[in-house]
Design a protein that fits this description.
The complex is a heterodimer of chains A (about 425) and B (about 400). By secondary structure, chain A is α/β, with parallel strands linked by helices. Chain A folds into two domains: about 210 residues, 3-Layer(aba) Sandwich (Rossmann fold), CATH 3.40.50.2300; about 190 residues, Response regulator (Rossmann fold), CATH 3.40.50.2300. Helix content of chain A is about 40%, strand content about 20%. Chain A contains 13 helices and 18 strands. In chain A, strands 7, 8, 11, 12, 13, 14, 15, 16, 17 and 18 form a ten-stranded mixed sheet that branches. In chain A, helix 11 packs across helix 12. The radius of gyration of chain A is 23 Å and the shape is globular. Chain B is an all-alpha fold and about 400 residues long. Chain B has 14 helices and four strands. In chain B, strand 2 and strand 3 form a beta hairpin. Chain B is globular and about 85 Å long. The chains are: A alpha/beta (about 425), B mainly alpha (about 400). The interface between A and B is large, with 50 and 45 residues.
Chain lengths: ~425, ~400
């Protein structure tokens, strides 16, 4: 059986080689997302969006390098929501396929898993999903929203609305914990007393707060006690909930919020892990009026966005990639940032005149690489974070958002904790 | 019959060992990357991972195939070994983490400014290795003692082991355990002074894994051929009879359970520096189930079977996640269903099945021959058909 298997593989590879010979100039590009397992529901959409972006680039003449035009040849692999497998696949893409760049990862743990591989093989990864920051690798371009491009604008908006009490609630992992600790410090700086920050604190031996907020395990469902707590906390008015709960736990949470009679007018909930794509799969009626904050909303009414959505829908109709779902599709921020990433990389390659990672990085670091995407202008900063617009929206019954506020061109900041500590110290707090 | 089988197996093992321990690393180290003979660093690393999985598979088989104890929690011991190695590797990062602090990054982020007490001894490689023996071994001893003393067996034992690994998984997800929470440990730099990013280090780790696997194989081979091994299989086939013959089966089972946990832990210890990450999802019940599948595919109740199964299934997974990223799960699922339905003794039992089938075709139309059960019969029996691997087996089934 093994022999036949080997023969078959040999035959397939010979055929493959024979077919590849007459092909024109192509450049291999890796796509590393989970297409199976728990994360597939979110990550498959990013794969689809990347295939769309590549087709679009190829159809409009490919990438121009050294007077030649290169077509993108995507190498799609499945990380299968399995973190060691992510590292293996990253290694395979970089060492076996020699891809010029990789677009991929969703969870922080998958990024942490592939990071050593990218650093060892000097690869380049475009990472598109909101995250906790506190990391800065020369081998990653963070198109994703950093904490100051999502959580902080949301808090600014709420402060503006006269909110004075903030309840912090999240799933127990690195993103919610870091975000809430940053928010705790940020709120102190803006004159909110610790007593008005809900969810509880953990202090170390020297009395310093090392964790703020209430945490629940993954897939937690029993929110009765927590919501009762929130109701008590919100009793005096002017309160809100900062929600960093991940995934399906949001369903029982919002059910409980509605059951407790906490309306968005009385105590709004702002969620950082629920975008249009997630709202497709959970009942939205309990979320109407609650807030979201992202660097893109599908409901943006710019001509660029209209054009983009039209082309995306056209592509969905005509494409014939295996596994791409055609019906009931939406676009959300991680997808849009994946799309932006593909164009930012193209721009950098063309500026560098080479696919070489060091040359591309040099171009990226110049600060001139930007793209006018569906959400507006996005620019790669010299620290490989990105500057982009940030929007606040309220959830509608159809799973879309109505935009209520825009923060133009917010600069991404990698090290929020340190900078807030310094500001607190300067104020003697 | 028996002699020839043993000889075939020794030849296969010898050839396999030479190939894995000597030939592959040499092809990696001494051939030019352009040469068609060259084995890339990536392949070496990949095989290193498979060989660690093979140790996990052997540990499952030692319990399931040889003792009739289906453990659905062996990945827990594998992960515990991995975590102990991981703690050592985290300390070896020194100040090279994201925060440039002398303690692991996740501790900085949890607000620690100096090292918690449980982390201090892990600067020592020897201590970490000692813990990789004591922690999984100790846990297996306590859990096994309680389970076997209460005569928990069969499906109840399987459920309990699964619950144990799930509980551990939830525990390790908690950040307050100071084990890195969801992200676990990653970004390792050095092991006993060697840079983990160098291909020579990875090759060394690969050779260690291959040698460790050979050692585990020989140990199990020897053990199952002794009187102890006979009692082990007797427990599998009819525990009550063994009890009535005056043996304390609980002690035998406890010993095998602890030994299996140590084999799994050894796999985990070698696994972590090669894949570069350990986190609680390794303890999730589906990982233990996967290991059971490798054993079933390879052929349980043999020692070559689990090794073959682990390498083949994982090789197929590596290949298919690249070649058919959308379809591979269906692929793998179909394979498992096929093996369960039509290959009850796995790949190892395939030649016997083919022989039996041939005989059946030849005998068709002739008067019924006297029944001969020495050749493997393709009956869906829970123990492998290779009677050479299970001498003295009678017709009764394990409970």
């Amino acid at each position: 059986m093994k022999k036949h298997f080997l023969k078959a593989t040999a035959l397939v590879s010979v055929l493959g080689l024979a077919l590849q010979v007459p092909a024109q100039d192509t450049v291999k590009v890796g796509v590393l997302h989970s297409l199976s397992g728990t994360m597939a529901i979110s990550e498959t959409s990013l794969r689809d969006m990347l295939l769309f972006a590549f087709d679009q680039i190829n159809d409009s003449g490919g990438i121009q390098v050294g007077g030649k035009s290169y077509k993108i040849d995507p190498v799609v692999v499945d990380g299968a929501s399995n973190w060691p497998l992510f590292a293996e696949k990253a290694k395979e893409l970089l060492e076996q396929d020699h891809v010029a760049v990789v677009f991929g990862c969703w969870t922080s743990v998958s990024r942490k898993s592939v990071l050593p591989v990218f650093e060892k093989d000097n690869g380049l990864l475009f990472y598109p999903v909101q995250f906790e920051g506190e990391e800065q690798s020369r081998n990653v371009v963070y198109t994703a929203e950093a904490v100051n491009q999502q959580a902080i604008p949301a808090v600014d908006y709420l402060l503006d609305q006269g909110i004075k009490k903030f309840y912090l609630l999240g799933t127990d992992y690195v993103y919610p914990r870091t975000t809430n600790l940053i928010l705790y410090k940020y709120l102190l700086l803006h004159g909110i007393a610790p007593a008005d920050i809900g969810g509880g604190f953990v202090k170390n031996d020297s009395g310093q707060v090392i964790s703020a907020g209430k945490y629940v395990p993954f897939s937690y469902t029993d929110f009765q006690q927590i919501v009762a707590d929130i109701k008590q906390f919100a009793a005096g008015g002017d309160a809100c909930v900062i929600n960093t709960i991940n995934g399906d736990s949001n369903v029982p949470f919002f059910k409980e919020i509605v059951a407790a009679g906490l309306t968005p007018d009385e105590c709004p909930v702002v969620s950082f892990s629920l975008a249009e794509d997630e709202l497709r799969s959970i009942p939205t009626k309990n979320l109407v009026g609650e807030l979201g904050c992202w660097s893109y909303f599908m409901s943006l009414k710019t001509p660029e966005n209209k054009d983009f959505l039209g082309k995306w829908n056209g592509w969905l109709k005509s494409e014939n990639y295996p596994g791409v779902v055609k019906e009931h599709r939406v676009v959300d921020s991680p997808m849009e940032l994946s799309y932006d990433g593909a164009y930012l990389w193209k721009e950098a390659v063309e500026k560098a005149g080479s696919f070489d990672v060091d040359a591309v990085r040099k171009a990226l670091d110049s600060g001139d690489i930007s793209f006018n995407g569906p959400s507006g202008k996005i620019t790669v900063q010299p620290d490989q974070y990105t500057t982009k617009n940030v929007y606040i929206g309220t959830t509608l019954a159809n799973g879309q958002f109505e935009i209520v506020k825009q923060f133009p061109q917010v600069v991404g900041q990698p090290w929020m904790l340190k900078s807030l500590d310094a500001q607190l110290q300067a104020k003697g707090m | 019959m028996r002699r020839s089988f043993v000889n075939t197996e020794s030849i296969v093992v010898l050839a396999g060992a030479i190939f894995l321990i000597v030939v592959l690393p040499c092809l990696n180290a001494f051939t030019a990357p352009q040469s068609w003979l060259h084995v890339s660093d990536f392949t070496i690393n990949l095989y290193g991972k498979y060989l660690c999985y093979a140790m996990l598979a052997i540990s499952v088989d030692l319990l399931w195939g040889y003792t009739g104890l289906l453990s659905l929690g062996q990945a827990l011991f594998f992960s515990l070994g991995g975590y102990m190695m991981g703690m050592y590797l985290m300390r070896m990062i020194g100040s090279l983490g994201q925060y440039r602090e002398p303690i692991p990054d996740f501790l900085v982020f949890l607000g620690w400014s100096n090292l918690p007490a449980i982390w201090k001894p892990f600067n020592s490689f020897a201590f970490a290795m000692m813990m990789a023996v004591l922690l999984p071994g100790g846990l297996a001893a306590v859990f096994g003692f309680l389970a076997f003393r209460s005569r928990i067996r069969g499906v109840y034992f399987a459920i309990l082991t699964q619950a144990l690994t799930y509980a551990a998984c939830l525990l390790f997800f908690r950040n307050s355990l100071l084990m890195g929470g969801n992200n676990g440990f990653t970004d390792f730099k050095f092991i006993v002074g060697y840079n983990l990013n160098l291909s020579a280090t990875q090759r060394g780790l690969y050779i260690c894994s291959a040698v460790a696997l050979l050692f585990v194989y020989l140990l199990c081979k020897w053990m199952t051929s002794t009187k102890f091994g006979k009692i082990q299989r007797a427990i599998r086939d009819s525990e009550t009879r063994v009890l009535f013959s005056g043996y304390s089966t609980a002690h035998f089972k406890l010993f095998v359970f602890v030994l299996a946990s140590l084999i799994a832990s050894l796999g985990g210890v070698l696994y972590v520096p090669q894949v570069g990450i350990i986190n609680p999802s390794e303890m999730a019940p589906d990982h233990s189930l996967e290991a059971v599948v490798w054993v079933a595919v390879g052929g349980r109740g043999t020692l070559i079977g689990p090794i073959l199964g682990a390498i083949l299934v994982n090789g197929l997974k590596s290949w298919a996640t690249r070649a058919y990223p959308d379809m591979w799960l269906l692929f793998l699922g179909a394979l498992f269903i096929f093996v369960t339905l039509f290959m009850p003794s796995g790949i190892i039992g395939l030649p016997g099945q083919v022989r039996a089938l041939k005989k059946k075709i030849q005998d068709r139309g002739r008067p019924a021959p006297p029944s001969d059960l020495t050749g493997a019969a393709p009956l869906p029996q829970p123990v492998p058909a290779n009677s050479a691997a299970a001498p003295g087996r009678n017709a009764s089934k394990p409970g």
